[in-house]
Each structure stands twice: as C-alpha cells, then as structure tokens.
TrEMBL record:
Pathways per UniProt: Cell wall biogenesis; peptidoglycan biosynthesis
General function of this protein: Provides the (R)-glutamate required for cell wall biosynthesis.
Keywords, ordered alphabetically: Cell shape, Cell wall biogenesis/degradation, Isomerase, Peptidoglycan synthesis
EC supergroup of this enzyme: isomerase
EC numbers for this chain: 5.1.1.3
Record bears the keyword Nucleotide-binding: no
Family: Belongs to the aspartate/glutamate racemases family.
InterPro entries, alphabetized: Asp/Glu/hydantoin_racemase (IPR015942), Asp/Glu_race (IPR001920), Asp/Glu_racemase_AS_1 (IPR018187), Glu_race (IPR004391)
UniProt GO molecular function: glutamate racemase activity
UniProt: substrate binding residues: 7-8, 39-40, 71-72, 183-184
Protein name: Glutamate racemase
Species per Swiss-Prot/TrEMBL record: Anaeromicropila herbilytica
Amino acid sequence: MKIGFFDSGIGGITVLYDTLKILPNEDYIYYADTLNVPYGNKSKNEVRKYIFNAIDFIIKQEVKAIVIACNTATSIAIEDLRGKYNIPIIGMEPAVKPTIEKNEDRSKRVLVTATALTLKEEKLHNLITSLDKEHVVDLLPLPGLVDYSERLEFSESKVLPYLEEQLLKYDVSNYETVVLGCTHFSYYKDIFRKLFSPDINIIDGNYGTANNLKKILEEINQLNDGCSHIDFYNSGLKVEDKAELDKYSRLFKRLDSIC
C-alpha cells in the first residue's frame, strides 16, 4: 500500500524530499490542491472543505497512512481528520516547542514564520503562551513566499528584496532561530541565511515529520522493502503531462542544491 502526501500546492514536496531519505522503499501519492492554492488567505471553513475533499480522494487510493504536509491544513483540521479516518494521519505544526526548549541564549529571540491563517490559530497561540515565559517569540506572516514558490520563482534577485522588506521592522541580529512554519518556505533556506547572522538556526518540521511517519509504520508493521514510486495528483487529476512531471523533478533538484 502507498503513503499519501497532501498539501495545498508544492510545499509538501519539501517534506516528501526528506521522507524519501528515511523511507526510500515506499510507494507514494502526492496530492497538490493546485486549483485552490494558496490556503493561507482563505477562510477556515473554505479551507476545511478543500482539505476533506482531498483526503477523501486520497483514502480511495488505498493508502496506509497520510501525511498532511501543510501547516495550515494541520492547524485547521487534523483532529477532525483523525476522528473520521481509521489510518494514521501525521500532521505538521511550526516547530515552536523544540525551538523554545533549545533556545540556549535567553537574550536572543525566535522568529516564527508561517501563513497568516496558521499564525491566527488559537492552538499555536496557546502553545506559545505556555512555553514562551521570557516572551522571546515573534510572529511573521510571509504569504509572498507561497506565491513565489507556486510560480517556481526561486531567484535571489526576486525573493531577497521581498524578505528584506518584510524584515525591515526587525533587528535580525537579535535572533537565534527562525522557524519555517510553512512547508513552502523550506525552498528558501539559502536566502534566509543571507539575512541573518552566520550561526542562525533555521528550523522546519520536515525531517521530524518523516521520522514520526517511519516510527508509526514500524509500530503497525507496515514498512515496505521494495522500490519507491511516486504518483502525482493535481486536485484529483493524475499528473501525466511531461512538462508537469518535469516541474516536480525540478523541485527535487532545487532541494538538492540547498540542503
């Protein structure tokens, strides 16, 4: 059986990329909701409808587990998804807890970046309130990075000015860690590094999610030992066009170049 990956667009490829390193012998379905991306600027009810339509489709492909490789979708719907479906469903949230716990220099700050919808969620705010006793966490929505990545725009000349503008009111020298709380943002790790001190920690939840998936599959004795294959779907339509398949190939190459 296959493992399903779901994202609003191409962001989840960054999670699948790390998963392939840990679970190279699995078959995968990658579902990008390309008709409705981005999610971060839509209402919760609208996004929930898109999420459940996508997961209903993925379930019908006879998968053994699903990774919600989208922080926004996880924050909105993960508990309801787990209540509806009887297979492991692994979600993603901004890596705030491990970041705050490992923030050694309490004079330094933590910048959590994500979509506006993720940053508005009560669950995230409650987590930060419970952990951030020194009040070192700042929140920054970066919706433009989702738009850039969906257009396959990765050039420093375009993206760096956008990030510089968004960071104008922040003293970047004050930060020890930047949390990438949207899977789309991981395509820009190299550009983030240009804006902060050389020893900045740039954290996403991708590798931890992949490890969690492996652990769960081991516990239910569902690991494969075959050869990996990936089927791509854009909003329920299987990708068979060579140009579109080449797009996904270029995304993997982009990640090879920055990781």
